[in-house]
Amino acid sequence: MRIYFSPCGIALGHAGRCIAIAELFKKRGDDVFFSTYGEAVEFVRRAGFNVEEVPKITFYEKEDGTFDIRRTLSAGPKIIIKFFQQIGAEINLIEHFKPDVVVSDSRLSSIIAAKIMGFKSVLI
User: What CATH number corresponds to the domain at position 85?
Assistant: First the structure.
């Protein structure tokens, strides 16, 4: 089985839980591949998995660490452009890897790319 993991690259929680799942697949002898961005790229690489970096989307946080939708949306066109760049990168990577399933952890771009390409997907 070929599994394509696409965790959010903000902080390491998303990548960490995907790595835990990926390790189970790897032990079974399955092929595992990751796409992510930010600090998660090196984190996944250090865990021993193949990973490709995709364009980073910046989300803003409030002082208390919660998501700041107002500041994030005020970035406007820049975020939309980066999102479409992410989708394009995901399409290329999915086309190359040809997974049996795409596992996304909080990344809509990989779900959209999988749908466009006709691959099964699941969102964590």
Answer: 3.40.50.2000
